[in-house]
What does this fold into?
Amino acid sequence: MDTSVVIVCAGNSTRMQGKNKILLPLGDTLVIGAAMFAFQQCESVKEIIIVAKEQDIPEIKAEARRIGVDKLAACTVGGASRQESVINGIRCVSKDTEMIAIHDGARPLVKPEHIEKTIKDARVFGGAALGVPVKDTIKMVDDGLIMDTPPRKSLYITQTPQVFRRKLYFEGVDFALEHDLDFTDDCQLVEAIGGKICMTKGDYTNIKITTPEDIRIAEAILDIED
It folds into this structure.
């Protein structure tokens, strides 16, 4: 148990028609509850830190108690950007933790075995991100015109968790703060200082809840897996 998990769920849910996506019901729990419970089941995980809006924290804590998530160590309030929110979360990790995992609270269907594999790969390479190969042909477009078609075999859809050795990730955070950089992806922090990151292959069910349709898709996936 050497990994601290920061689950980020402080966004505004702007595409959810006014609904707070992390507090929506999904199966027998809430979206955030399902995400927490996946990490609860991982032997490598020692603690879970939630970054959320202040008004959501009491309900998140209540959900953790209800479903038996006893690894929830702290809840803290998010910042003005995703990067600021993550930094607020990592300030709460234990001093003796070796690995830091960052996860989107809106990815409730992540599998414990994929979490463990990502952590294992990060121990070897210094960093690892869960992802899947793209299925479609991707075009690079500028001003409405196709400029290039990158080879599909080298393209992956990046998911979370993204896991890093503590020292490496903190170096990336320090670099971003020193140079006033604001990244939307945690891998970019480590990429910016030349760190190597493994792409750990997951599966396509690890969807992110972004629009109302995504909840229905997640429910369908749960029905199939049950």
Observations:
- The chain has a mean pLDDT of 93.
- The longest strand covers residues 156-165.
- The domain at 3-225 is CATH 3.90.550.10 (Spore Coat Polysaccharide Biosynthesis Protein SpsA; Chain A).
